[in-house]
Amino acid sequence: MLRARRAVQKLREYRPPLGNRIGLRMDFNENILGASPRVLQCLRELTLEQLARYPERGSVETVLAEFFRVRSEELLLTNGVDEAIHLICETYLEAGDQAVIVVPTFGIYELFVGATGAKAIAVLAKQDFAFPTEDVLANLNDRTRLVVIANPNNPTGQVASRADLLRIAHAAPQAAVLIDEAYFEFYGETVLDQSGRLPNLFVARTFSKAYGLAGLRIGVLMGAAEQISAVRRIASPYNVNAVALACLPAALNDRRFVQGYVDEVREGRQRLQDELRSLGIHYWPSHANFVLVNLGQQHRAFVDEMRRRGVLVRDRSQDPGCEGCVRITVGAAEQMDRLLAAIRETIAEIGSVKGVPA
After folding, report:
1. Is the dihedral of CA 139, 141, 143, 144 positive or negative?
2. CA distance 78 to 55
3. Model pTM greater than 0.70?
């Protein structure tokens, strides 16, 4: 009888609640406005011939290399950041290896680590989800082959300092150290300038958030040329589709649109945090395009009442250290007007909340 590998049999399927998402989508950290109008124009101009050909990513990688100020050989386009994470795991992990992951965080890390037969070593964030630098360092050993850190972190919105990230990379030369900068645009700090200098440091970026291209599934992995060459060996040459490749340069060229959206999100983030404070709801100041709040035992009622008002938010109460927590995506001004009104109405409906700091 055919059976999947033992490592796969042990995995829990990662199933985000994507079904029945009718309403204002403040639950998946997407760009609620959508991509630049230039992307839509690019879609309109696609030809049947372009769709009939196998995609060629090389020329777009050259454009991206110039955009990120790295060499072309230090960069690989991927099918979203998810594939970048998967490729890193498949390139460097074997059964019996260890991967250090700071939790709570993006659940796909543990999934892809486990699929290789390696063991995920979960390091719990400190009080108020502060980054546990010393605990990460204490968990490094000769079996550590991967350290993966989301910065800013999802779902907490917290960050690790540049100095701490580089300290970890230097402390684990035998391990791939992947910094997932999916929310970079809303934060502004990076270690990308070091990714070509430290042979074990990788940086992943996505075009799903600030650029509004989540549906096209396109991301990028950057690192030292020798290591990117190794990762490229197991990547399909056709991993990024022709539509995404055609549209990405148009999205990159409209910097005014992207910066305008980022500025609105930062303003909206402050408005949301001010409103939460005025309502007595505990939250963690965020560096991303979302805010994590603690609603205690009323978190489920909050999610349900917000949905009834046509606003979707994400229950994160099952994440380590996140009991009673809900994550709320931040959007542009008009969306924030609707979101804040729904929050006020919901709190009036369910009564005061008793969320407490983690």
Report:
1. positive
2. 13
3. yes
